[in-house]
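Q&A log
Question type: sequence-to-structure
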Amino acid sequence: MLVIPPTDARAVPDSLGRSNQQVREPPSHRILGIDSGSPTSAQAIPAGLDHGNAQGGQALRHRILGVDPGSRTTGYGVIDTDGNRSRRVASGCIRVGEHPWPERLRFIFDAVAQVVADHAPHEMAVEQLIFARDPTAALKLGQARGAVLCAGLKAGVQVHEYSPKSVKLAVVGSGGAEKFQVQHMVRILLSLDAEPAEDEADALALALCHAHSMGIPARRRAAASWRDFRP
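Response status: OK
Response body:
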């Protein structure tokens, strides 16, 4: 069953269990970071997605989508950021279950495409394919990444790739950090009420990694006032 958090000012259909809920309009600049997770829209999305709720607060300048592709579960996370502060907009997981493999790829593609359509990001951060001892597992993961990449590129979104080590280094400070450490730091950096699930945290970490590195144009950073800085 799919549950999706809205991210615009439209009413959500009763079938999604969130009727008449109003939310903010997105900021002018958006960056999308997806960790192969569930989409977040006010429209119907392929079954198998679940997500967290958007956070409130003042609109920030950039929107990033992070995606962590997986053959069974794909995490995604959307954040708004100004380079110093970041806020989660929506996050969750795309779960494809036990469907035949071609159908799973279609679900992943459709779900990510829906997230892109709903949040209109400028950039997407995706986890790179890492070494796998099982050739079959590596092949399936590569195909899942392909579905994610195609969904973003088809919509004109700039796609960036990061290794798991570089993401951990950017978010935790150690390239060898454990999963629970990533979850903990994501919760701290985004001021979440609870630690996100592993795949969801990985996607949010990808978005944060992109924001901390090449996600925010240098000219925009240079133009920002020192008064905007927040530790």
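Response note: The mean pLDDT is 75.
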